């Protein structure tokens, strides 16, 4: 007739994207890496498109990309989510394979936009 006491005391379940927009929740390593992957992908696409639109070229663009791809996600998970990256093996462990994919997205969007407009 009624719900069990264990079911009523269980913490609410959040989807991954609800967790990504909520502070101070518990994170598993795979969840955090998934969210960071998509943040890096979106950041890479936006930055590559911006650099292509304004016609930037050369090494400073790569330096800005790699600085941003480390700083933006780490600022997000430490300042917004309140996650300590040391609990997950450090900053580079969380960033993991996302940097390589992000670099490919950045270069493709940058070169594509630059070629299209200039």
UniProtKB/TrEMBL annotation:
GO terms for cellular component: endoplasmic reticulum membrane; mitochondrion. It is a multi-pass membrane protein. The chain crosses the membrane at residues 35-54, 61-79, 99-117. It is found in: Endoplasmic reticulum membrane. GO terms for biological process: mitochondrial respirasome assembly. InterPro entries: EMC6-like, RCAF1. Keywords: Endoplasmic reticulum, Membrane, Transmembrane, Transmembrane helix. Its main location: endoplasmic reticulum. Belongs to the EMC6 family. This is Rab5-interacting. It comes from Coemansia erecta.
């Amino acid at each position: 007739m009624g719900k069990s006491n264990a079911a009523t005391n269980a913490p609410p379940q959040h989807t991954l994207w609800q967790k990504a927009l909520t502070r101070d929740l518990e994170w598993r390593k795979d969840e955090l890496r998934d969210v960071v992957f998509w943040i890096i992908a979106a950041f890479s696409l936006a930055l590559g498109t911006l650099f292509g639109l304004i016609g930037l070229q050369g090494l400073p663009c790569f330096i800005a990309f790699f600085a941003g791809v480390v700083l933006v996600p780490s600022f997000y998970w430490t300042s917004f989510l309140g996650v300590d990256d040391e609990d997950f093996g450090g900053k580079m462990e969380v960033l993991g394979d996302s940097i390589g994919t992000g670099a490919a997205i950045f270069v493709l969007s940058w070169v594509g936009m630059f070629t299209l407009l200039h």
